[in-house]
Write a structure and sequence with these properties.
Chain lengths: 75, 332
Amino acid sequence: MDINEFIVNFANQFDETDPDEIKADTKFHDLAEWSSLTGMGVIAMAKTIYGKTISGREIRECITVEDLFNLVAGK
Amino acid sequence: MAFIKAISYYLPERILTNEELVAEFPEWSVEKVAQKVGVEARHLAADNETAGDLAEKAARRLFDENGISPKTIDFVLLCTQSPDYFLPSTACLLQDRLGIPTSAGAFDYNLGCSGCVYGMALAKGLITAGIAKNVLLLTAETYNKYLHPADKSNRAIFGDGAAACLISTEGMAEIGNFSLGTDGRGADNLIVKTGASRQKAPTGLHTEDDEGHVWHDDYLYMNGGNIFNFTLDTVPSMIVDILEKNALALDQIDYFVFHQANKYMLDTIRKLCVLPRDKFYVNLSGTGNTVSSTVLIGIKDCLDRHVIQQGYKVMISGFGVGLSWGGTILNF
């Protein structure tokens, strides 16, 4: 798994947030557009693109986009 | 053999628009709800209107629209998780209110989003065993009565409504073989904890779930992430099982009418299972997720718009609370 590709896929879950704003160390829970719906998008992304199952609780425990990448990569 | 002969549905008069919802939750936008959840408006049962009342109206519409006499009905199945009473079965009350003969069997069964498919399985069993000839399958739900006023996510998704379907020894669509499944380990993921025998009195308690959402004991709770994952785990293998049980290949399916959970989930299922967009039904903008009625409402909508035509093989499926899932093929 490539983290840069992951960041692009993650940024695609947002409609209004500038993709350039999202980096490996971005604290994604603090993004204005982040919501439970975006969380669903990340669950769907993990499943459809990476074939991995992650839970809402696990997403909640992640702080940065890199944490999220490590979560999915480690599954 | 068992066939679907006719379908009708009823939605209660009160309509809750996204504009009204957003007025209560200003952090949301009308466009966002419509775009993500796929719902622009949903119908709500009145305070004094029950699932039984909605089911009665759907059944009367079925009789009126299709020239069906209630005297011909010899079995009533009502799928609901919001019955009028703990006892008796609401289906028994409906037998009387609809003028169905006292020689008819009638009972409720408690399922949610998989309920329509299970009703067809039950009705097919009754018909092929020679127990009944004309089964009135009713699906009716008033989930909005279970929702906490501050639960914006579920209030955006769920609409109240009822559907009625006549299943008979002949008709417009033969009901195929079934794939059914249950996993009670996931019961807590979609639940109303209080009011029944396990905890009769309301507790007034609430906790924070593992996603950070408030879980009120006395209202409907859904763990969105877990239900989403359950669906993405279950539906692809169910599709394969339905195809195998009906000796069909995926490209022989002319149309797919799945439970209309929400647009986002349907879009994800479609992409995950590589189902063709033009054969995959997504339409809950005016109804919301009506739980056990979405599949019947969807089929009726497709028939009215001639999207489903004679000769079509249509895959239907439902999945949700229980956890419970099921699907079959309808041969039009």
